Amino acid sequence: MRDFFLTHEDRAFRTEVRAFLSRELAPNVDLIERDQDFSAQLAIVRALGQAGYLKLMFPALYRGALPKPGLTHAVIVSEEAAYLNYAFETTIATALSCAYPIHRFARDSLRERYLLPILEGRSLGSICMTELSVGSDSAGMETRIRFDEGSREWVLSGLKRYISNASKADVYIVWGVTDPDVPPQKGLTAVLIPAHAKGLSFPRLYDFMGRRGSIVGEVSMDEVRVPEENLLGEVNGGFNIMLTAFNFERVILGGSGLGVARAAFEIASQHAQSRVSFGQKLGQKQLIWDMIAQMSWKIDAAELLTCRAAKMYDAGIGGKDLMREASQAKLVATETAVFCTDRMVQILGGDGVTRQYGKAEQLYRDARTLPIVGGTSEMCKYLIAAREMPSIRLNL
């Protein structure tokens, strides 16, 4: 990586994080991938929290050496973690995606109860949006949230699926419809549910082809009741919280994509420089150097877009003003991860699809999730086009 837009402090921070993860995460990647040992992940999460790396997005709580911590540095942590193991990066990114709305929109009492434990690595968070008929489009959301005036409680019923950290999180942010008579963008509400809430269950955990070791499953709510104070933001204000959370998540996913792409590129370029075929190093063949060149410029482009979006956020730009740039970062970085892992396997040949010859096949499986999670590539393209053509109403 060239780190074009990073400062001296940013680069020193990357070196520090890389050394930390080499000590804490690298020795455990086999436990996560092969044995799917979630306890190993929890131990590393605790270490990250104790080191202060989960507080980078929350300057008032951060106590590290960086003078101005922010999303730029959270992206660096994401990239370096995904470079070693994307499943683990999913766990911490999901927890931060939960912590972020709690910090921005929760009452003080909820922040004290749920935010610090996540940021100190003592607990996990989760966000619940996706349903059977709801992915990037929230219009078909069936989860219902109503307010019981008698008990002063929020009552939630519905089923969410493809939820990271399902059954392992200590707190869940759930989006649901509070007013079905208005357009979905005006009738969604977000509420916090603690893991011990009566009526909360996890009917199924999924077995993915990639990200082995991460926990993803269903979250069911059967008349779950939580106190009035568990509301995030305002009633029917959930769409704005969702938009803000998606911007944050998409920039973080830019870092995830960069980490996976970089790992694949290094494997491919090293193999091309060492493997001899028909009397020549692979890298001397035009078709191979074409692949290496394309991987190189795509990674640089993804890095530039991701760094720009993170720096914009750190400069105070957010909401719809960051939507285009966050979507570009997520789109290009995650598609680059897929491209680089595909070309890596092609360059390695049989070694690229065999577990006995290293992590190439794992990277290939892991990367395919990236253009889907956090808003599909198609959704990102729509958001980009919508900002570029403001006078035209685009149909999904």
Helices, strands, pairings?
Layout: H1 8-24, H2 29-33, H3 38-51, H4 71-84, H5 86-105, H6 108-119, E1 125-128, E2 144-148, E3 153-164, E4 171-177, H7 184-187, E5 188-194, E6 200-201, E7 216-227, E8 231-232, H8 238-274, E9 276-277, E10 280-281, H9 286-314, H10 320-348, H11 360-367, H12 377-388
Parallel strand pairs: 1-4
Antiparallel strand pairs: 2-3, 3-7, 4-5, 5-8, 6-7, 9-10
Protein name: Alkylation response protein AidB-like acyl-CoA dehydrogenase
Keywords: FAD, Flavoprotein, Oxidoreductase
Cofactor: FAD
Structural class: alpha+beta
Let me know the number of strands: 10
Rg of Cα set: 21 Å
The separation of the N and C termini measures 36 Å
Spell the H/E element sequence: HHHHHHEEEEHEEEEHEEHHHH
| Count of separate DSSP helical elements | 12
Strand content: 5-15%
- What fraction, in percent, of the residue positions are helical? 40-55%
Widest beta sheet: strand line-up: 1-4-5-8
The stretches of 5 or more residues where confidence is low (pLDDT under 50) are none
Q: What is the makeup of the main sheet?
A: 4 strands, mixed
The overall pLDDT average reads 94
Oligomeric state of the chains in view: single chain
Query: How does the overall form come out from the CA principal axes?
Result: globular
Cofactor: FAD
Organism: Mesorhizobium shonense
Family: Belongs to the acyl-CoA dehydrogenase family.
Domain Acyl-CoA dehydrogenase/oxidase C-terminal: 236-387
